[in-house]
Amino acid sequence: MNRPDFSQAVQATGGYQFYVDSRVPIQYDLNNKAVRHKLSLQSLPDSTLLLSFLRHRQDEASCLNLNQVSTPTVLGVDLKEMESFGLIQEPHTSHLTPHIYIDEEALVWSLMKSVGDTLIYQNDKGESVPVVIAGTYPTGIFHGNAIMSSEDFRRLWPKEVGVEVLLMKSPCPEEAAETLAMAMSEYGLNIQTVEERIRMFFEVTETYLIIFLTLGGLGLLLGIFSLMIIVRKNLAAQATTILQYRAMGFSESLVGQLLLRENLLVPLYAVGVGAIGSVISISANVGGAGPVTLLLAFIGLVGIGLILYYGIKYIIQQTNNNEQTI
To answer: Where are the chain's structural domains?
Structure first.
């Protein structure tokens, strides 16, 4: 249930379906019909839209880099275009100081900064320029990148005029991606779906969840076997009490029920408390869990209860048989 849900990735990126990374800066406006004709992109549907980003390469500030960074890579774009990505443009306190926006996770864990702090970048002249962190945006396909207005970007790095990052949406996404890759193969395009890119950033999270799931399963098995051993030793210590029950005229079935209730009370209480604690810990994700996940969780919980019930019942029966033999 703690695994992230990527089914709504396109809706969370303004409807853009592909993230395009170009090794060679693109000097053209790919939304222009004349440019599309020149680059053999006329087969793209007319409603295909590409959002362009300037890029100033600096440190990798995503979760793929475990080191602390000081200056993340900057993407320059019209900030109004970023509203669909959850970026809220706040009033500038000074139009003379460049502002950037960084995704929440990179700001806290990679930069270890907060909103209002200042980063130092080098402009094209080699001068140190303070850049203020004006706000954040939700972690997504731009994870690890700082977003800056195109005006501030051109003022700092006027020589970096080529577009290196594109977002694309089209009514025929697969056809549009294939056309773009073939027509602009000399630019070294790397085209990813937005879901693939987000999954890439969550590979570390997925690995940790798998490790925790495996260790948790082993711990659960170890706990069940340990419980059975404790129950067996407890029944062995109660041999005299069991004999007294029989001497007083209690039937074998009644003695078995008494012992079963006595030994089931603590494990079922432990399972109940653990289940409630687990539900509370993942309560934020329960609403997003699919019916299959919830069904598997329910079956697993019932399965644990049945294993405890029949396991303890079997041990009690074996103990009673041994006592009768004696």
So the answer is: 11-201, 204-325
